[in-house]
Write a structure and sequence with these properties.
The chain is an alpha/beta fold. The chain is about 30% helix and about 25% strand. The radius of gyration is 21 Å and the shape is globular.
Amino acid sequence: MGTKAAPTARPFSVTSEVGALRTVLLHRPGDELRRLTPRNNDQLLFDAIPWVERAQQEHDIFAEVLRRRGVEVLLLAEVLTETIQVSGAARIQGISGAVNARRLGHLLADELAAYLRGVPAPELAQILMSGMTFDELPFGADATSLVRRMHHGHDFVIDPLPNLLFTRDSSFWIGPRVAITSLALPARARETSLTDLIYAFHPRFLGVRRAYESHTAPIEGGDVLLLAPGVVAVGVGERTTAAGAEALARSLFEDDLARTVLVVPIAQTRATMHLDTVCTMVDVDAVVMYPAIQDELRAFTIRKEEGRGVSISGPDPFLRVAAEAMGIGKLRVVDTGLDGVTAEREQWDDGNNTLALAPGVVVAYERNENTNARLEDAGIEVLRIPGSELGSGRGGPRCLSCPLSRDEV
């Protein structure tokens, strides 16, 4: 499906997790996953070496499920290519973000950048996503480049970005504005340079204003839940820092995009890398949540006080303060799994990481049978997709998607 704007393209705006999804940004797995080896997969944040063709098949099924429900699917590779085609500034910005003179030395960096400036847009987009090795350099070795002589041919001159698959993290929308995040780990740091140039230069996004841009304190989209219009939850753990959460809150207050931000400490472990690995919304008043943390999850409440600046209180029980901030009596909670062992297994397999297509309609991995059954018992429609290979980087349907437009709830 093409990504060019239609004359009647819907304006971008997201104010909740569950409003009917209209437009979404996905990234179909590509050659960047073929760069993963047993030697580098830990560094590149994958738990296993994915079968790329199967991952692509699974992703195609995911995208088709969305399209059949009336969702416009934009694919990052296509949008990136279009951006480079229409904007010389985007080309220069993309090359600048990928070619690191501190690592390559100025001689090699300048030579590589000069070459990339003349590469056709589709090929350049692929290089920016999937990287380049020293063996793949398109020009002969220069005897004066010590860097090139000292590296192995299979070493990366431009690092691949296998985690581009998880479009949720490098940007998120709040109201009619986009927030550009700061990813915590080196393997993902360059992802935001690509989303940044897409939002800055692609014709579809011209005129879009920024809600927040962080180049210092880490914050990732998987830690940000839009609980209700004006109410945002931010997880602080392995990826998002307290400084990042506070900076986001104050920025949202200044732009009148939120009135309450709940900052939720979570364990700094691989299993709970983001808030959406333990909790996602499945309806306007319901969440699916890992039961082991339900009673212990706390939140600091940051409020914008009229005429009095910002107040901070807590920590208090998350479920209670979330319901109060949302203006509802109580949040309904659907547990992951039926018992402790099942819950732990299905939490690891992204059972909590669902993508809502509308109130009470979610996409989930088919393998989490117990959690999906519990969701259906609670009145939630579950659209099941395969995820045996997509999940090898630790992420479910919510991680795989960046909503650009949702209906109001």
